[in-house]
Design a protein that fits this description.
The chain is α/β, with parallel strands linked by helices and 489 residues long. It contains 18 helices and 10 strands. Helix 1 packs across helix 7 and helix 8 packs across helix 9. The mean pLDDT is 87.
Length: 489
């Protein structure tokens, strides 16, 4: 059976269980089961390396002792299995005692189960799912990496699982950003809204090729840091890191905005930041108070930009995905953020992405901002990635591929201005020119957008998001009129 069929088979079993409703719950159910299987395999490795290793999971609750079928007739199923999972496994793992000396590879068990749920009500069906997962061979390096196919299938399924789609950034985009940033062994890579860990795994793929010594391996193990607010993607991210041989995944289940940004020490800053911050959301006033007054925005993407700037090391590098609203926004807050960005950091490149890269989650246009902490911006290059020939738009079945960035990569190494039909595709702007534009970075956009017929649910999502961006533009214009008229309220 192919690994993709493995995922489908498990989901088909769950569809017969009355307790599991919808793809999002099926994926969440599958994920905590997969985590326990993966964790047990990793514990076998840790026990081999360290004779004194002690599991944080009580012995009877370890996968090998209740989930694995020893074929001796003692395996739990039916009501006994449901009672064990609901009344013993989950309550115990949720209440595991930890302290400041507990290593991260043990803490994650408690974090994973704090907000997880067992949705299944049929113990026979649950046993079938567990047996399927238990048959996975994950001991060998190649087998663990083959498991990535399962993981990719799960992540792609998130795109059609309601709001869960927000946790998935197309792999072509994360790989392109990591390739342009080029993290090095010894550097620390962070994502302050890491979702399922897509950016971190793209960075690890590059770092993995640089391992030549035992010291390099140790640096690799300590190279990533992530924060994720929501329980479900946090669980996926930790499992993802374990599969990529990060033995102590430094992934924190927390809110990146719960600290005053000016309080971060040098030890809490990073060499590389790769992110796709959630946008379109809003934060309450108490959270905004953790930011300087001129940076206090209710928009989550704006706040993340400030967090990144305060947590990027001297000479550090960042690549961040932001919606068009950030580029054209000239209200006081966005203007302040962009002023700080360009006066204190080097915003050297903006890559404009086609509007349907994140379809079907959203068709709102997005951009990648590349900047570093080497000094103020002198000039910014803006380059537009056009839709590939033969594509009207990207979709779940026809996603963006890494080769669609090939022309952009060629241009990156040999930059020049490109004009097509009197419209700029690539253009350099000096800081003075950007200031003249009132920090409106909405340049080199698509000259015209062909009308396309989209599914009704996508049309509705796009309508609300486009209306939000239109309202932002109207508010910006009103603010400018008020300023001209000297109206302060």
């Amino acid at each position: 059976m192919s690994l993709n069929n493995f995922v489908k088979k498990i989901q088909d079993i769950m569809r017969n269980d009355a307790g599991v409703n919808g793809d999002a719950q099926r994926i969440e159910q599958m994920t905590w089961i997969l985590f326990l299987k993966v964790y047990d395999v990793k514990e076998e490795l840790w026990e081999f390396k360290d004779d004194g290793y002690e599991s944080i999971i009580p012995e009877e609750l370890r996968w090998r002792n209740w989930a694995h079928d020893k074929k001796d007739g003692s395996i739990m199923t039916s009501e006994e299995l449901i009672e064990f999972v609901d009344q013993k496994l989950f309550p115990t793992l949720k209440d595991i005692a930890i302290d400041e000396n507990t290593p991260m590879n043990k803490i994650i068990v408690k974090f994973i189960f704090e907000d997880s749920n067992n949705f299944m009500k049929d113990g026979v069906l649950l046993r079938q799912v567990i047996n399927e997962v238990d048959q996975l061979e994950l001991e060998d390096y190649d087998d663990r990496h083959a498991f990535g196919e399962i993981y990719e299938k799960i992540l792609k399924d998130l795109q059609s699982a309601g709001n869960a789609g927000e946790f998935y950034t197309p792999r072509a985009v994360t790989d392109f950003m990591a390739e342009m940033i080029q993290p090095k062994i010894g550097e620390k890579v962070a994502d302050f809204a890491c979702g399922t860990g897509g950016f971190l795994t793209s960075a690890l793929k590059i770092l993995e090729t640089q391992i030549n010594t035992v010291e390099d391996q140790e640096e690799y193990n300590n190279s990533i840091y992530g924060i994720e607010k929501k329980a479900f993607p946090y669980m996926l991210c930790v499992t993802n890191m374990l599969l990529h041989d990060i033995e102590n995944p430094n992934i924190v289940h927390d809110n990146s905005f719960d600290r005053k940004v000016k309080e971060y020490s040098e030890e809490e800053k990073f060499d590389v930041v790769l992110m796709n911050p959630p946008y379109g959301g809003s934060e309450k006033k108490t959270v905004q108070n953790n930011f300087p007054r001129d940076l206090r925005s209710s928009e989550t993407a704006d706040l993340f930009m400030s967090v990144i700037m305060y947590r990027l090391k001297k000479n550090g590098r960042a690549a961040v995905i932001l919606p068009d609203g950030f580029l054209f926004g000239t209200d006081n807050i966005k203007k302040s953020i962009k002023t700080k960005l360009m006066n204190e950091f080097n915003l050297h490149t903006i890559i404009r992405l086609p509007p349907s890269v994140f379809s079907p989650y959203t068709s709102i246009s997005t951009n990648i901002l590349f900047f570093d902490n080497t000094g103020k911006t002198e000039e910014t290059w803006i380059y537009r990635v056009d839709m590939p020939e033969g594509y009207k738009h990207f979709s779940k079945t026809k996603p963006m591929k890494i080769e669609h960035f090939d022309k952009c990569k060629e241009w990156w190494e040999n930059r020049e201005e490109i004009i097509i039909d009197d419209f700029p595709k690539a253009k350099k702007f000096t800081l003075d020119e950007i200031i003249e534009l009132e920090y409106n970075l909405d340049q080199c956009g698509i000259p015209q957008i062909e009308e396309e017929i989209l599914p009704p649910d996508e049309l509705i999502r796009n309508y609300y998001q486009e209306r939000k961006q239109l309202e932002e533009k109207i508010d910006n214009t009103l603010d400018e009129i008020k300023e001209i008229l000297g109206i302060t309220e």
